[in-house]
Design goal:
Length: 499
């Protein structure tokens, strides 16, 4: 059962000392060998990665030139234009649920840390707009949201470049008869968060995003249900929402309140806090589970003294912090011998970057309020949370037992055989002839490095013993995803300005 706050046994003074020793050991593990990192270079590459994931007609300023136009007729079978957007990982399907979460986290990265991005801010804004332009297309029809393009089973049966795709580009939607409050709630959150990003930079576009977010959220709340129930055959087991849709409704309302400043959304949060299970699984955060993110996001208002009716969210946020600290045994969050956060499930690095982002964001909110986190008798400072987040980032960039950067193109040693079709197959510029569905298998099975460098891609990462097989066939470890990189952008922006 999930803890509702820091409900640990009272920590004795002796245990507090042991805890601090364990944290110190984690933070300074291998620090002498690291020699520091070029966080701005890593930031630049982490944003560049999104250009390698683009679908549709590529713009003239496309920097990863080995990619070409792809999926130019998406949506045609349904009579709509669904070109653009992102492939979420190493395949060629456009899954709306993780894409929307990616845009929410990329927007949050800019909202909180855009001032630290320097010359890369413009590229980060382009990365958001590429995604939100697609989400606007997917939500253009009242009462309908298009949530996926491409048949995942057909796609996963092939190993081919997106430029060559001849697999089914089936279009999947939710509507009043086939609800999907989870994907709709996340889409509303993404549009609302992006509206904040563009509020002063492009007011007309910002208003369009916010107005659409309001309509999408109304649809999500009115027609409640999980999209993995109504579209089970298409989205499961790939992005099946096993956590339920309730968290996405609170998440969407929280972002709409932040973006619109309308009291109705705050009242919605207060009214539905218990019904929508705000205190559940407080140490989970990712495309499927928004609980920790909800609590941290809403806590900012509480810490500023502007939301006394939302104090339970701050208690939950404190509980989240306590549950992921090293040295406190918790069944859902562990650390590898080398100091990496480890959680059950595929693509562990998604947990590392998302949870680390929350550590950093909450640390900043606490700092501005001059607050600490009480965990039993141990008082945890904002500075310690920043150190914990930085330790995870440094591990990704090479401070780990294998001395390997898990970001492609960063450092002297990084994964060369990532599970990614476009990267592993010859580019259309090097091999203009069509490569068919099964013709690509020999490249998938080849021991050779990928011919195209997907710069900035962060792979799923090592296992719980810090071991990493640099092989395409080990997709849990070697596949990159957009939702791993999105929160990392914010982390790298901050540490580039505060090394």
């Amino acid at each position: 059962m999930a803890l509702k706050s820091c409900q640990f046994p009272v920590i004795s003074r002796l245990f507090s000392s042991i805890f601090l020793l364990l944290v110190s050991s984690l933070l300074f593990h291998d620090s002498a060998a690291s020699g520091g990192h070029d966080y701005h270079d890593a930031l630049k590459k982490s944003i560049l990665f999104f250009e390698g994931q683009r679908s549709g007609k590529l713009p003239p300023d496309q920097r990863l030139r080995w990619r070409g136009d792809s999926a130019l007729h998406d949506g045609a079978s349904a009579g709509v234009d669904l070109t653009g957007g992102y492939y979420d990982a190493g395949d060629n399907v456009k899954f709306g649920f993780p894409m929307a979460f990616t845009m929410t986290l990329l927007s949050w990265s800019i909202i909180d840390f855009g001032r630290n991005m320097g010359s890369e801010l413009g590229n980060a804004l382009k990365a958001v707009k590429w995604g939100t332009d697609y989400l606007l297309k997917a939500t253009a029809r009242d009462g309908i949201i298009y949530v996926q393009v491409g048949d995942a089973f057909s796609d996963h049966n092939c190993w081919e470049r997106p430029e060559d795709m001849d697999t089914l580009r089936s279009v999947y939607k939710i509507d009043s008869s086939h609800p999907g409050s989870d994907v709709a709630g996340e889409t509303a959150a993404a549009l609302a968060a992006a509206s904040i990003v563009f509020r002063s930079r492009d007011p007309a576009y910002s208003r369009l995003l916010l107005n659409r977010a309001i309509k999408v959220f109304q649809f999500a709340d009115k027609h409640r249900g999980a999209y993995s129930s109504s579209l089970n055959y298409a989205v499961c087991p790939f992005y099946c929402d096993v956590n339920g849709y309730q968290d996405e409704l609170l998440w969407g309302a929280a972002w709409l309140h932040k973006a619109s400043r309308r009291r109705e959304y705050r009242e919605y949060i207060v009214r539905n806090e218990v019904v929508l299970r705000a205190a559940d699984t407080i140490n989970e955060f990712g495309w499927d589970n928004k609980h920790a993110g909800i609590n941290v996001l809403i806590s900012k208002q509480v810490l500023m003294g502007k939301a006394d009716d939302l104090t339970s969210f701050q208690r939950n946020a404190d509980g989240f912090i306590c549950s992921i600290l090293p040295g406190i045994s918790h069944p859902e969050v562990q650390y590898s011998p080398g100091g990496l956060i480890v959680k059950a499930g595929v693509c562990n690095m998604q947990h590392v970057t998302s949870l680390s982002f929350l550590l950093l964001a909450y640390s900043n909110y606490l700092s501005h309020a001059n607050k600490f986190v009480p965990c039993g008798e141990t008082s945890v400072s904002p500075a310690l949370l920043k150190q914990l987040a930085k330790r995870q980032v440094d591990y990704i960039l090479g401070d780990n037992p294998l001395r390997m950067s898990y970001m492609v193109g960063y450092g002297a040693r990084y994964p060369l055989r990532i599970h990614h079709r476009a990267s592993s197959l010859p580019s259309i510029k090097a091999h203009p002839a069509h490569i068919g569905c099964k013709e690509g298998s020999r490249y998938y099975l080849s021991p050779d490095p990928n011919p195209n460098r997907l710069t900035g891609a962060v792979v799923g990462g090592p296992n719980n013993t810090d071991a990493f097989p640099d092989s395409r066939t080990f997709y849990d470890e070697s596949e990159p995803t957009t939702y791993v990189n999105a929160p990392l952008v914010g982390l790298l922006a901050y540490f580039s300005a505060h090394p």
